[in-house]
Amino acid sequence: MRYLKRLLELDYRQMWEKIKRIKKRSGRSYFFIIYDIIRCSRKFGSGYIDYCNFHFEELSDELKATYVTRMVNDDYCKLLNDPSYYDVVNDKATFLKIYHDFAKRDYLDLRQSDKEAFSAFIHIHPLFMAKPVDQLCGKGIEKIDSRNFDDEELYERLIKQQQFLLEELIVQDDTMASLNPSSINTIRIVTILKNDKVYMPFMALRMGRSGVVVDNFNHGGLNALINEKGEVYTLAVTKDEREYEYHPDSHVKIKGFKIPHFAKLLETADAIARVTPELGMCGWDFCIAKDKGIVAIEGNHLPGYDLYQCYGQRPIDKRGKKPLFDSIIYGDK
Asked: Which of 170, 179, 225, 292 has its CA 20 to 30 A from that of 216?
């Protein structure tokens, strides 16, 4: 039933585009690619997007088995996360309420506020971020200067576009802003709470592009991995597999970049992971604010496992992250 459901949900047009991309880079026949995608789906729980993103056509079955795939990630989250708590992080307004001590910013939920409350908020915060409460991948996020609008007109526009969440603007630390000043550049930390201990098997620096207000991987953002000392140790990559030693807009060197206040960042990640133990595995996005220190931007109950294993950042031995995650989640077998 699980595989039948996946077959019914497939975007076949997108799948065909991925197949053509694999054929172009590998020279393999369409028959081989389609056959191997199906085989790997059954054997490794990978989808056609996994197959394409991780360049499975290049890997032996032994190496493929080391990758966190879609179904592997789903199994982790089903084991560690209680679905009845998903809205704690999925609904951005609920997140700001539950994790207020970590989010450290004023906000207004237009679903629960009237025009008078809206006018009061934009009087205090004329420049603010407007967001849908339930969208992923940075969709619908906009920086708005209310001084450029009539109050009534702006209120109606936000309601119409379902940008119900208004947030106080965060001013990021100068060091982080040097990477790209138009976006809040964040640190993604995946936490696993197991036996009252918080593990952090994955950390990455996420950077936006010039003129873009989000750093999301799906909006042209860059992703680079961070080691246990708080230093970026890989090149930055984009979703379309471009690689950068220097940020393409600011020209700041990325490999070797040191995350400021890193010890405090780890302490904060440990603390926030314990707030809702029913979400035992979560991907947290943090920024470093100039006047507020470590600030939690959002949580993700289904962390983006593609970030763990980007093609341009995989190690020399080409192994994925599954053995590391398995050792934490299931223990040594």
From this structure: 292
